[in-house]
Input
Amino acid sequence: MILQAINCIQKQLDPVVHCVTANIGEIIAGNANITTDPDIVISLINIEETRISRDPRNYLKSGPHLFLKNPAVHLNLTLLFTAIRSETAYDSALQNLQKVILFFQGKYAFDHINTPILDPGIEKLILEMITLNTEQLNHLWSIMGGRYQPSVIYKVRMVTIENISLDEGLPVKEVVLNF
Output
């Protein structure tokens, strides 16, 4: 569901500003295989689990049958939207970044009603802008091996990954309490 969520966001944003999903660190190093010249590069920079909305039930009932399942994993994705620029096109990079911010200001939630291409396995995606201070930005860009590029970070909530086993569980028929 991670790739499907990022691809959905990229497809929604692409009519506004040409973007690709790639590792910005590889692009900066010159090791990326990008066939087009994008205005914005979308990079996944963090995945974190949200345990608050975890369902404690470990079974699924379908008619008389019980199926075992582990609780679904709910993820928040942190995406970096970087404006690719040459030394002479700094103003156009800033304009492209502004287009990204304006787009998500107008549409920060993606569901099956306003985004028909959203994967059926994803109920809803909510984007929230994240602000880093200069020290955190320095660490981020140092990890990626490049110098700072105009960019904005968004947290994408709620990507759910769930796998239901076809192993049928046994129902509880009797409970014995010993006092």
User: Anything to note?
Assistant: The domain at 2-166 is CATH 3.30.2000 (STM4215-like).
